[in-house]
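step: validate -> pass
step: tokenize input -> pass
step: predict -> running
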Amino acid sequence: MPLRIDPRWDALMSTALLEARAALRTGDVPVGAVIADARGTVIGAGRNRREERADPTAHAELEAIRQATAARGEWRLGDAVLVVTLEPCVMCAGAILAARVPTVVFGAWDDKAGAAGSIHDLLRDRRLTHRAEVIGGVRAEECGLLLTEFFRD
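step: predict -> pass
step: emit ->
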């Protein structure tokens, strides 16, 4: 049975996909992320910029977290949802937990570096002080196709 997509996640994933496509202009892996507050207002957006910035930490999730915390003037994002086109890696999962993001929605699973259920499950690890609700597979085919085409080229 296909995943029932919450209309809010679908709209936010559309924005994340726009960010992912923008990453193609700089030769970066097409991953995009957005963070919305409890009202659904986007407070942060990002895309992979590792190539553009020559920075291994310039992942979409970290870019979105940096923008959201700067907009808020505080590091806690306890009422936010992060929507990203690819399952977060270990580094991004750590940042998500550090920022206290309570909900993470992602598109494609990452069976090589995923840390939200595929290889690791850091976001829901009960041994940690903070955990996040994880909803994976939202528009997974569309998100995955963008990545498949990038790596095929």
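step: describe -> DSSP finds five helices and five strands in the chain.
step: cleanup -> pass
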